[in-house]
Structures are given as structure tokens and as C-alpha cells.
Design brief:
The complex is a heterodimer of chains A (about 280) and B (about 250). By secondary structure, chain A is mainly alpha-helical. Chain A has one domain. Helix content of chain A is about 80%, strand content about 0%. Chain A starts with 16 loop residues before the first helix and ends with a helix. The N and C termini of chain B lie far apart (about 40 Å). Classes of the chains: A mainly alpha (about 280), B alpha/beta (about 250).
Chain lengths: ~280, ~250
């Protein structure tokens, strides 16, 4: 074949701005649809598993709780303590000016329970557990392991998603409680050792400032955040196409999407709870 | 038409996105037969396997596996169908977090959570023995060589005593000796268990060792369906060139 006989490659038309916006909107819509489908399937199979517990893979939920939850405890405790300490030091500076040091308990308690505890735990788990879920499932997709599960009449949702769904649904609220306690204890330490507050005074003030309603709200928030992390990370993992580079891209996209969704959901919760 | 045919495909059209990969594929595999699907890279061999094994949804056409039409109306076909067939994937596709024993027993454990652990252990040992992998139950897939992974994958595919076995490039990535051993193993399994096999490969040595019949794909179409001897003597030029390891590109252009 001579060179002149090679047909010219048709020039690829660049999509217009409106087309790009449309494509992005469509892809976001499809992703939301995939997450919603996964949520409905998980709830369906969870209900089924409650009725027939033997259908759950033995030990896998506990393994996931250890992998995704327990191992995150030290970092959650450390960061929450440091943030509680920082918040307490900064707040105390201002409160001292007005002689209102006792309100340190109110400030630390409310900010840790209403906002920092749930959000900080969710962000840590999104970066740690969300990325791990995406990387693991994406690698399984690339290595045809997910297809192998289907070929053995094993529903990948049942096998891969349910243990992670249950594990994070239990572990994340517990980690949130631990985070709130660590932050409050750090505030207490600052109040007692640096500003001569009494332990009893701090705890009495905390109890008055923090009705149980706030604790339930924090737990509800953390449960919602855990579902967002599981479903976004699983969707990103299952939808991966290509090789090792695609696994890396999916993992990064998972962390970004999880954190964005968590902050968005937090804003929605603030609107619902405090408007 | 053979009424006992374990695999029947009619007018199959399949692809990805807007790209058509397979067009108007018809084929029928007889009971106990080893059917080899071959063709050059990108001709649609693996897509055909995934479609006939019910792992990907075809665009159109009908696929009948073990007398049961694949039904995609409620998503991926599941249940009974998969209990009677096994698939050996190209990279074995063992679950990397599970040991060899757990991988092999997985289909039975999931389908029957009440299964007696002792019986399961014996069955796993028996299947690993059939593929010459005795005593490897506690090893992780990462600790196995490519050939051993393929054998473990084969043991998993055989654990539920399937009637139909799909193999995707069984010799890919293996040295000639290991590849030959795997071919011998497949022949032995057919002889002892009478399993029908649908094997996708482009390894000529494997084709010669295994094939009862071949289906040659080119550009997504079946261009030859028959015995290897027929293909070599009366098949289309492209098929004869492929089997003789010749490039047919120059000839066509010439």
C-alpha cells in the first residue's frame, strides 16, 4: 500500500461548552443513580440477611469491622484530641476576657458533638477506608475477580458490599462517639490544668449544655456519612474500566467525592436540624 | 439440530458502547465436545465467551446454555444456570484475600451455608487432587506460580461438578511445558468426567491438542466452523494461514 493511498484521518470535533456541561451533568446523574441503586440493593439484601442470617458470609462483617473501623481508632483518637486541645486553647483565650471560662465546656462539647466529631471521623474514614474499599474492589474488577464471583452464582453486592455496609454502619457511629469523647477530654484537660476549672464544674456545665438530642443527631449524621462512604467507594470500585492506572484514578475520585458528599450532607443536616 | 446440545447460540450480536464486536454469530456445541474458539487478537473471542457464559449482556440474539435460555430481563442471569457450569478465567481470577482452599470451596459455601465442613474439606482436597494441587489449601494465590494459579482456578471451576466448562485463554502466560500439562489435564477431565468444554485460545499447540471442533472468528464474524482437519484442508485462506502460522495480510493486499 502506498503512502498516498492512506485515507486522511477525519479531524475530531472538540465538544462545545454546552456539550461538556451536559456530559458532566449526565455523568453526575448516572453516578447518583448507581449509588441509589446500590443503596436499595444493599437494604434489600440486608433485610434478607436479617431473615436468613446464614446467607451472610461468615466472619466477613467482623473482618471488615476490624479492617475498616478498629484500625482507624488510634488516628481518630489522636486527631480528635489534638483538635479538641487546639479548640479549647483558642476558645479559652476569648472566654477569659469576659470571665466566662466555664462556658469552655459548652463550646467544646457542642462543637465536638454537633460538628467536629462526626465530620472529622467521616473525613478520616473517607480517606482511609473509602479509598481502601475502592482500591480493593477496583483491583478485583481489573483482575476479573468480580466476574468470577458472578460466574459462581455469587451476587457481588451480597459478597462485597454487605459486609462493608454493616461494618461501617456499626463502626463509624462508635468511632464518632470515641472522637467526641477524645475532643471533650482534651478540652477538660485544658480547662483543668491551664485555667483552673474543676472537673465537676466542667462536667455539670457540659451536661446542661448538651441535651441528648444533639447526641442522637450526631449518631444519625455519622450513620449517613458511613453509607455515603460505602456506596460511593463501592460504586467507584465496581465501575472501574482499564488497568492499574484506572484503579489509582478511581481511588482519588472516591476520596474527593466522599468528602464533597459528606460536607454537602452536613450542610443539609444543619438546615434540617437548626433552621 | 442436536437436542442435547449444552450450548447453542443464534444470531448473536454484541459489543461495547458504540463498537460492535460480534455480529450474527451462530454455533452449537455437542455434549462432551471440546470446542475451541480461535482467531487473531481483538476478533471477539473473549467477548463471545463472556456473552455465552452469561457474564455480559448481548445486544441481540439467543443463547441457550444446558437447555436454558439466558434471560436478561431482570439483569444478570443468576441461580441454577451457574451451578452447572464452571469458568476458568484468563488470569485464574482467584480472590486474592482468600486461601486456595477457601477459593475452591467458595461456590459451595455460598450456595449452601449449612454444608458439612468436613465434607467440604474432603471435596476441596479431591478437586485439588484432580488438578494435581494436593496440599495447597492453605496457600494464598500470591504464593502460587502462574500455572498453579490456573490449576487452582480450574479446581474452583470444577468444585460443583459442572456439565459445561468455559476456559478463557487457559495457556496464556504459561511456558510451553506448563501449557502442555494444562492441556493434558483438560483432556483427562473430559475423559473422566465427560464435561463439555468451550475453550477460547489462540495458542496453536493447545488447539491441536484439545480441539474436537473449532470456530474461527474474524472481524466479529464466524468464518469457519468445523473440525481442525477440515479447516486445514478446505477452510478459508485466512484460517489456513492462521493454522500454518502465516500472515495472510500480504496475500490479501497482493
Amino acid at each position: 500500500m502506498t503512502e498516498s493511498a492512506i485515507p486522511p484521518t477525519p479531524e475530531k470535533r472538540q465538544p462545545s461548552v454546552s456539550e461538556q456541561v451536559g456530559e458532566s451533568a449526565l455523568s453526575i446523574f448516572q453516578e447518583i443513580k448507581a449509588v441509589a441503586l446500590l443503596l436499595s440493593e444493599s437494604i434489600y439484601y440486608s433485610t434478607l440477611a436479617v431473615r436468613r442470617p446464614k446467607t451472610l458470609t461468615r466472619g466477613s462483617t467482623a473482618t471488615q469491622m476490624i479492617q475498616l473501623g478498629s484500625t482507624a481508632l488510634p488516628i481518630v483518637l489522636l486527631l480528635s484530641t489534638l483538635i479538641g486541645f487546639t479548640l479549647a486553647m483558642q476558645s479559652a483565650q476569648q472566654l477569659q476576657k469576659y470571665g466566662a471560662m466555664i462556658f469552655l465546656a459548652d463550646g467544646i462539647g457542642m462543637s465536638m458533638v454537633m460538628e467536629i466529631g462526626p465530620i472529622l471521623t467521616a473525613v478520616i474514614l473517607a480517606g482511609r477506608s473509602g479509598s481502601a474499599i475502592t482500591a480493593e474492589i477496583a483491583t478485583m474488577v481489573v483482575q476479573e475477580e468480580v466476574m468470577a464471583l458472578r460466574s459462581m452464582a455469587i451476587n457481588p453486592i451480597h459478597y462485597l458490599v454487605l459486609p462493608r455496609f454493616w461494618a461501617l454502619s456499626i463502626a463509624q457511629p462508635l468511632l464518632t462517639v470515641a472522637s467526641c469523647l477524645a475532643g471533650i477530654v482534651a478540652g477538660l484537660v485544658v480547662g483543668v490544668f491551664f485555667y483552673q476549672l474543676s472537673v465537676t464544674g466542667f462536667l455539670t456545665e457540659l451536661q446542661q449544655a448538651l441535651p441528648m438530642r444533639y447526641v442522637w443527631q450526631a449518631l444519625l449524621k455519622s450513620l449517613t456519612f458511613s453509607w455515603l462512604i460505602v456506596f460511593i467507594s463501592v460504586t467507584k470500585g465496581l465501575n472501574v474500566r482499564g488497568g492499574a492506572d484506572a484503579v489509582g484514578r478511581a481511588t482519588t475520585a472516591c476520596v474527593v467525592s466522599c468528602i464533597f458528599s459528606i460536607i454537602l450532607a452536613d450542610a443539609v443536616f444543619s438546615f434540617i436540624f437548626y433552621w | 439440530m442436536n437436542t442435547e446440545s449444552p450450548l447453542r447460540v443464534k444470531g448473536l450480536k454484541a459489543g461495547y458502547g458504540t463498537q460492535t464486536v460480534l455480529q450474527n454469530v451462530d454455533l452449537e456445541v455437542a455434549k462432551g465436545e471440546i470446542r475451541i474458539v480461535l482467531g487473531g487478537s481483538g476478533c471477539g473471542k473473549s467477548t463471545l465467551l463472556k456473552n455465552v457464559a452469561g457474564l455480559e449482556k448481548p445486544w441481540s440474539g439467543t443463547i441457550e446454555v444446558l437447555g436454558q435460555k439466558l434471560d436478561w430481563s431482570e439483569g444478570l442471569p443468576t441461580g441454577d444456570l451457574f451451578e452447572n457450569m464452571g469458568i476458568l478465567f484468563q488470569g485464574a481470577a482467584l480472590i486474592s484475600s482468600l486461601t486456595v482452599g477457601e477459593n475452591v470451596s467458595l461456590p459451595l459455601r455460598i450456595r449452601n451455608p449449612d454444608i458439612d465442613p468436613e465434607m467440604l474439606r474432603k471435596k476441596v482436597a479431591m478437586k485439588l487432587g484432580q488438578v494435581k494441587m494436593e496440599g495447597t489449601e492453605d496457600k494464598l494465590p500470591g504464593e502460587l506460580s502462574g500455572g498453579m494459579r490456573k490449576r487452582a482456578g480450574l479446581a474452583r471451576a470444577l468444585i460443583a461438578d459442572p456439565k459445561l466448562l468455559f476456559c478463557d485463554e487457559p495457556s496464556a502466560g504459561l511456558d510451553p511445558v506448563t501449557s502442555r500439562e494444562l492441556d493434558d489435564l483438560l483432556l483427562e477431565l473430559r475423559q473422566t468426567l465427560g464435561i463439555t468444554m468451550f475453550v477460547v485460545t489462540h495458542e496453536l499447540d493447545s488447539i491441536r491438542a484439545l480441539a474436537d471442533k473449532i470456530t474461527f472468528l474474524s472481524g466479529g464474524h464466524v468464518i469457519f466452523d468445523g473440525t481442525l482437519a477440515d479447516a486445514e484442508s478446505n477452510g478459508p485462506q485466512e484460517v489456513r494461514d492462521f493454522l500454518a502460522r502465516r500472515s495472510s495480510k500480504g496475500k490479501k493486499e497482493g
